[in-house]
Amino acid sequence: MARTPLLQLSDIALTFGGDPIFEDLSLVVQPGDRVALVGRNGSGKSTLMKVMAGLVEPDSGQCVAAPGVSVGYMEQDPTMEGFATLGEYAASGMDPDEAYRVDMVAEGLKFDPAGLVATASGGERRRAALAKLMAEAPELMLLDEPTNHLDIEAIAWLENELKSTRAGFVMISHDRAFLRNLTRATLWIDRGQVRRAEEGFDGFEAWRDRIWDEEDQQRHKLNRKIKSEARWAVEGISARRKRNQGRVRALQDLRAERAGQIQRQGTAAMAFEGGPTSGKKVMEAFDLYKGFGDKKIVQGLDLTVQRGDRIAFVGPNGVGKTTLIKMLLGQVEPDQGLVKLGTNLEIAVFDQSRAQLDPEMTLWDNLVNDPEMGVSGKADQIMVRGTPKHVVGYLKEFLFDEAQARAPVRALSGGEKARLLLARLMAKPSNLLILDEPTNDLDIETLDLLQDLLGDYDGTVLLVSHDRDFLDRTATTTVAMEGDGQATVYAGGWTDYQAQRGERQKAPSSVGKPLASKGKQPQQVTRKTGLSFTEKHRLEELPGVIARLEAEIAKLETLMADPDLFTQNPVKFEKATDALTERHTKLEDAEAEWLMLEEKAAE
Question: Given 178, 202, 321, 463, which is the most exposed site by the fewest CB atoms within 10 A?
């Protein structure tokens, strides 16, 4: 027996500013569907979701929900006028007897229903909008970037709730792990066309690449046919007085077909400008303590950051990750302990609030005016990696068109703002990157490129993120901040941290446990092993460092085994050679350090 769709879109057409976003769009959402809605930033994902929610009226076509079906939409920028508290907003429209659900959801999403709307941050407002949707429990949920501004614990809670729900849902998200774990179908928006695959996000990239390969083959065949027909037309001038006009018209049709094809949007031409080489030790922290009143941010932390490290700071929202990074940079004084910064540091910061962007200024002015660098004015060029470039040309490299260059930043989507901030960041040389929630709002392709760039970056990276997949792909060391001042160093990314944390919790011995807020555990460890607390941590993380370096060496050797690499891409070959030499040196240093610490521990 056929199921009645929850929602049906038929022949939808929608145009903004003269350019069609969708034409002849038809799709259905069935009961129990768990759908990932994916596409490039600016492709129309949020607009399509608003059409589904009935908030945007299409120019033509119909969007119809089944009789009696409730559709709920999580707004990214909810309007809360008339509500004093976040809880009042979240419970609005609900039966008073069921308002208790808001408190239950608020606990899982970690937001305070008593928080005042007037002073709430953008993240708190979005969590309240998500809580409202989850508490209402509609039969179809439309979720636009639900994990933004959630910490990993809240993401895990939301993931479990969505796994257990009987409702259908369509979601937009940049969080690969979240999408992989939850979705069973994929809607892909590409150049105004919406395709559906009956498999979850885990299979999306392979499906997308197959479609693009088929498209490239068809384009290649069309180009060959046009070339062949054009040769016939030219040769026919001398061979015949009267050409086959039908065949000439067919050639014109083929050319029109090629002209009408919409080219795929390329990836942003992103690249980090490496600054001067920093010292081998970028920073060292000894016995750090910081607190605000009764709240401990960190206690007893020892940390050494070496040149080339990618260190992730993870933990619940509000635990103090950004504060700890500011202490390591010397911007916030610790209450106790010492931080030593290395030499020759050139620091670039990507902040999650996008505070470096003036929302009222144009994209152009945001690039050419830099208060931090003492640069202001009405220039039409920007220095990019030592080379002057026209502002519009540089913006086009980051997928902005000329019309957007003169538009205010406030008109941009979240993903476009992130891309503009990256453009600003990448114009300047650096050897120490501070990335605070860089993944928010970025599309999958830009995230892939950012991960590749971080892998090739010659400097050091300090990273705050709640994106588990991004952490696994990027981080070489994880500092887990678990509250009450506990900050523990683990080798590897998120999955490595979870595995090591599980082993530590199983271990009966106190050796290897996080530093407690009371007692003298470091001294006890030193008497047992002959190592200081810092040395003990270093000994524990070195096997992971060595394994990572060996894997990187193997990858580089595989790359350089390509006999065509030197002739076809000599710059890449040279960079790979330098990287291989550097990895071998680091591996030798790490092995020597491990041997020295092992011998010291045995004394």
Answer: 202
